[in-house]
Write a structure and sequence with these properties.
This protein has about 270 residues and is an all-alpha fold. The chain contains 13 helices and no strands. Helix 8 packs antiparallel against helix 10 and helix 12 packs antiparallel against helix 13. The longest helix has 29 residues.
Length: about 270
């Protein structure tokens, strides 16, 4: 088992190095992508400031707490964007064009091959904004730093990234049957923007969706309450980890099932 893990880690490093080399052939594209994400994140924070100029608190949450939740949400999303962005290609064109065939010809795990083929460097914009806002919250005393808190933060960010990837993998896997699921995946990711804010501010139907069907509330807001108001550990980060495992199992099982019905491009 350890030899197999070591082999995959070495292969991943080789794939990533080669992809970065090819990406840096066009440095302008990289900086444009990074700048675009920084601008979009900046616009989101400006929106928060404008709202709180008119409303000092929102459902008992102040601006500093909201900025922490916003930053907290960006880190797992950025990690998922950085490492698994190639799943979008599965949902969009790999199945239709039959280019998925190349993965089935290699003696490696297919999911591993897909995700290691691309490292989306413009995700650094999301990660940078998220880290800056979390560090700012520590500096402002919005949350307190403790060794146990750091551990739970890392666990929460990891689980949140798994939830994002699981949602992406679920909709990408449906492409084995319906060929192009990019509209569904796009819609799901647009709904993930709601995770940047407390779920209490939304109508009940939206809250239900964010906590069940597309559990984006568990990637930021719910675990963030553990750090902000000392909420129950098992109902926040514990629940997040449980949901991450369940959704990963469902999504990966669907992916495996999809492989059995894949028909290539045909004539």
């Amino acid at each position: 088992m350890m030899k197999k893990i070591g082999r995959y880690l070495r292969l991943y490093r080789i794939f990533v190095v080669q992809y970065i080399k090819s990406t840096m052939q066009s440095k302008v594209d990289f900086f444009i992508g990074l700048g675009g994400f920084l601008i979009s994140q900046g616009a989101g924070m400006v929106f928060l400031y404008l709202v709180f100029e008119q409303i000092p608190s929102m459902q008992n949450w102040n601006l500093e707490q909201m900025l922490f939740i916003y930053g907290f949400a960006q880190i797992p999303r950025g990690i998922d964007h950085l490492l698994t962005d190639n799943l979008w290609m599965v949902s969009w064109r790999m199945i239709i064009r039959g280019t998925f065939d190349k993965y089935m010809l290699r003696p490696m795990n297919l999911f591993f091959q897909i995700v290691c083929e691309t490292v989306q460097m413009d995700a650094m914009g999301e990660l940078l904004v998220g880290i800056v806002l979390v560090v700012r919250a520590l500096y402002k005393g919005v949350v307190k730093i403790t060794p146990l808190g750091v551990l739970f933060f890392v666990i929460s960010v990891t689980a949140g990234s798994v939830i994002y990837t699981s949602v992406k993998l679920f909709f990408a896997s449906l492409a084995f049957w319906v060929k192009d699921t990019s509209p569904f995946l796009t819609t799901a990711y647009e709904l993930s923007d709601f995770a940047k804010y407390p779920v209490e501010i939304y109508a009940k139907p939206i809250r239900i969706v964010l906590m069940t069907v597309l559990p984006f509330a568990f990637v930021a807001y719910i675990p963030a309450t553990y750090f902000l108001i000392d909420a129950n550990l098992w109902r926040t980060i514990g629940a997040e980890c449980g949901i991450a495992l369940v959704f990963w199992f469902i999504s990966y099982s669907l992916f495996q099932k999809g492989l059995t019905v894949y028909e290539s491009a045909g004539n």
